[in-house]
Design a protein that fits this description.
Largest sheet: none
Number of strands: 0
Number of helices: 2
Distance between the termini: 129 Å
Shape: rod-shaped
Strand content: under 5%
Radius of gyration: 42 Å
Helix content: over 70%
Length: about 110
């Protein structure tokens, strides 16, 4: 009896496997497709991450350049308010000189 039960059980397992062989194959294919899609998406995300990191580095460089430019503008703003700047502009643009200064012009 035990031998017959085992034999019947083996037949049922084979029948079950044959019936569900196609389903198991389809499920396996779906899993493989999902793995492929996730892998491709991961590669795409890595490429975007590199692109974004490069963009961040570029923007940080621009921020540093603008901070430096801002400091130069602040320094120029401070210089424009000094008497030294007023004298330089008066000499260069208006040709003004002090009473005790002597000017020499070159002949070109």
């Amino acid at each position: 009896m035990a031998g017959i039960k085992k034999e019947n059980q083996k037949r049922r397992q084979k029948k079950y496997f044959r019936r569900h062989k196609r389903s198991m194959f389809m499920i396996s294919m779906v899993i493989v497709m999902l793995i492929v899609v996730v892998s491709i998406s991961g590669l795409s995300l890595n490429a975007k991450e590199k692109e974004y990191r490069a963009q961040v580095a570029q923007l940080e460089a621009q921020i540093d350049a603008e901070k430096k430019r801002s400091e130069e503008i602040d320094a120029l703003k401070d210089y424009v308010g000094t008497d030294e700047y007023i004298e330089a502009v008066a000499k260069d643009k208006l040709g003004l000189v002090y009473e005790n200064e002597t000017l020499f012009k070159s002949q070109n």
